[in-house]
Amino acid sequence: MLDTDLKQIQRKVYISYFQDGLWDILLGVFLIGWGLMIMFDFVAVMGGIWVAIYFLVLGLKRWLTYPRAGYIKIPEARRQQMKMIILGAVLFLLGFMVFLITSTSNRPEWFSEYFMFIFGTMFSVITVILAYWWKVSRWYAYAGLIFISFCTHQWLNAPLNLSFMVPGGIIMLFGLYLLVLFLRKYSKSAQDVVNADQ
Asked: Largest Cα–Cα distance in the chain?
């Protein structure tokens, strides 16, 4: 019974960590960045841009979120695992994209035909993993949106850059909506620290 209560408390802490919409905005901007990368062909700088945005979100949480809703301390082990998952996912996607671009002569025909659909599916799976890891149910919807967007590219010939930018724009706008709700809900007065260490 106690273990169940602790898990419920921990789940509420993780949900509250995402209530300001900043991580949603980060995901949206990341997808939009991929779309812009395809349009303007700047693969090499995409990783650096994403890292800069990631630390910008961390800074905004300290400036906007913590003074209003309190500091939510995530367990160190889980935080480090999360960083490794995000970093690994970004590096994997970047590496996979570079591989696809540079190995055009060695790819099987079926792989060449479906490689962006495979890429989008992998992106969706990573989003599902993050949704499960952080117990944020709306991210499952994001994963579905990303998957559907790549289906439209594969079978309806929608522009590839829009397969990134459309779901990215929707996710970013929803994140901004959550941020506005958060700022309206909480005044700028510090709360007690909520410690999720278990």
From this structure: 59
Tens of pLDDT, residue by residue over 133-168, are: 888 899 999 999 999 999 999 999 999 999 999 999
The Cα–Cα gap between 59 and 188 comes to: 16
DSSP secondary structure letters along 136-166: -THHHHHHHHHHHHHHHHHHH---HHHHHHH
Distances (CA, A) of 169 to 44, 117, 165: 22, 19, 6
- Give, in order, the Cα–Cα distances in Å from 48 to each of 44, 45, 87, 98, 168: 8, 5, 12, 15, 18
Question: Can you tell me the mean pLDDT for 47-71?
Answer: 77
The band of 79, judged by pLDDT with boundaries at 50, 70 and 90, is: low
Are 135 and 14 in contact by the 8 Å Cβ rule? The answer is yes
Tokens of 127: 């989003």
Quote the tokens at residue 193: 């620290």
Q: What's phi and psi for 107, nearest 5 deg?
A: -85, 145
List Cα–Cα distances, 65 to 22, 86, 92, 154, in angstroms. Answer: 9, 21, 30, 40
- Confidence (pTM): 0.77
Contacts of residue 132, defined as CB under 8 A and 6 or more positions apart, other chains included, come to: none
H or E, element range at 62: none
**Tens digits of per-residue pLDDT, 100-117?**
655 555 666 776 788 789
